[in-house]
Amino acid sequence: MSAVAARSPGAVAVCDSKRLLSYGELNGRADGLARTLHSLDVESGAFVGLCVERSAELAVGALGILKAGGAYVALDPTYPQERLRFMMRDAGVQVLVGSSGTPIALRSDAAFVDVALADTASAVAGPRNAASGDGVDVAYLIYTSGSTGVPKGVMVEHKSVLNLIRWHQHRFAVSSADRGTQIASPGFDATVWEMWPYLTGGASIHIPPDEIRADAAALRDWLIAHEITISFAPTALAEEIMAVQWPSDAPLRWLLTGGDVLLRSPPPGLPFELVNNYGVTEAAVVATSGVIRPGTDGGPTPSIGRPITGVRVSLVDNDLQPVEQGGQGEIVIGGPSVARGYLNRPDLNDERFLPDHLGGAAGDLVYRTGDLARWRSDGELEFLGRLDDQVTIRGVRIEPGEIAAVLNTHPAVRSSLVLATGAACSRRLVAYLVPALADLPNSELLRTHLSRYLPKDMVPTSFVWREELPVTANGKFDRAALSRISPFGETAHHQPLSPRNDTERLVAALISELLEIEAVGIDEDFFLLGGHSLLGAQLLARLSELFGVELSLRALFDNATVAGLAEEVERAVVADISLLSDAEAEQLLSELVGDS
């Protein structure tokens, strides 16, 4: 990146809604940060915390840590403080690079450096870059959900990032004229993909505001206004983006997606190509990739493409032997993209990172993903699911065992099991619990307990109390039997608060219809009940039809309960719902619930 800064110091490198940094400014500020880190004894291979929100400052922080020879530990400032503190302790973080958005409590756990105050005055000579030239130093450490109850840190080396950069720049013909985006959360490894291929190629990165990035129509308008040429969007959002109308002359050339199962092909007439990608944190974000051509929904699930340059993908049986062509097998990834391994987890490393006996050089490792796939006749891969209980919800990889482990620390819970239910686009988590006390906590108290340790996407939407959890003949939990128990039936320990007025009755009925559940309480969160942005857009459309109001997806995120959304409707509605007669309100309700 220093070469780009020397060649084109005035070119735009990264900008958000508050600031714009040229390549010269970005490089200078990163050099200054590296100097500051060296003064704090950051040496080659040291793990340095990076807790900065999506912003231009995130690029400064990451680049400065790498220039100092360290490896940055990706910390999402929106995560629970207890979770962030565990990550810092596990990685031995002594220095934390942050911003005004970094939780105050974290700043006392390490030497805190405000990225906005990086000293550029002493940066003219450049920092001493302590990273080795063979690419085996760790570039970043990123944590994923762990089945044993705690997150596990994945150590990704420079050579792995470099392979991703080279493939991406060649595959999508990245030039200095390109404009990319940074949409993913800082703790999601897609941020690596959104950042380095562009900053090392002289292109610019543009960061949409939070209120725009989850709203497909608003994001489309922003992408067009900012002349974005290449963008990544998580699977659910990408499917929404494909569904909105696009002008034929939109600058966007490529829409890249991944993180979940893509369920539909793009419609004909889009001005950009859709590229579906598959990958794991343990192999530098992307392992396979392929263009999805316009097709008819209802056919085969879109493929996950072919291995990217430098990556080898094998499908193996339980004995790690290659399966026959057309047979299903576990995805095993080899090549330079494979990470060094998990930090402080030799047991998991022995299980997942294995010596490469599938075509690699001596000393190379392969990674067992636990994902199933088969080779199609056209040479592309079809994703078939998981070998274990791991699930992906809204692009977040989740080990249900980690959630159960946290639940079991509550004094009222003797044991628990967490399952994912529903289709990929509307998957939700349900917790089944055996009580340890006679006085059972309500769902909100359990959610509060979990939220101290887990991100929002890992908090179950429903809690079902059982006298015992069913087991199979061999003593394992009978997940099939549990999945047949309704999470919203009589066994659920939940007494929904009834609507208090007609607005709340209508909103509750709408949400009940969309999510196909009963008895939605006015205090229940649309997203915790299993809603997502695509269903949210449908909910807002129905509210517009009923009340004549235009609410943004941001308004739904900020007022996600029935009560909150009803208040938002009443503030915006032209003719107050109270003007409706009882008969008119009853008629609207009948239309919603199908009761004539």
Distance between the termini: 66 Å
What structural class results from the helix and strand content? alpha/beta
Spatially, the strands of the biggest sheet line up as: 6-5-3-4-7-8-18
Task: Give the class-level CATH name of the largest domain.
Answer: Alpha Beta
| Alpha carbon gyration radius | 25 Å
Query: What is the tally of beta strands?
Result: 26
Quote the average pLDDT.
87
Using the coordinates shown, work out and report the CATH topology of the largest domain: Rossmann fold
Q: Which percent bin holds the helix content?
A: 25-40%
Whole-number count of domains: 4
CATH architecture assignment of the largest domain: 3-Layer(aba) Sandwich
Short description:
With 596 residues, the chain is an alpha/beta fold. The protein has 19 helices and 26 strands. Helix content is 31%, strand content 21%.
Which helices and strands, and how do they pair?
Elements: H1 2-7, E1 12-15, E2 20-22, H2 23-39, E3 47-51, H3 56-67, E4 71-74, H4 81-91, E5 95-98, H5 104-107, E6 111-114, E7 138-144, E8 152-157, H6 158-171, E9 179-181, H7 190-199, E10 204-206, H8 210-213, H9 216-225, E11 230-234, H10 235-243, E12 254-258, E13 273-278, E14 288-292, E15 306-307, E16 312-316, E17 328-334, E18 341-342, H11 346-352, E19 353-355, E20 365-375, E21 381-386, E22 391-393, E23 396-398, H12 400-407, E24 413-421, E25 428-435, H13 443-451, E26 462-465, H14 479-483, H15 502-515, H16 533-547, H17 553-558, H18 562-572, H19 582-593
Parallel strand pairs: 1-10, 3-4, 3-5, 4-7, 5-6, 9-10, 11-12, 12-13, 25-26
Antiparallel strand pairs: 1-2, 7-8, 8-18, 13-14, 14-15, 16-17, 17-20, 19-20, 20-21, 22-23, 24-25
Helix pairs in contact: 2-3, 6-7, 9-10, 15-16, 15-18, 15-19
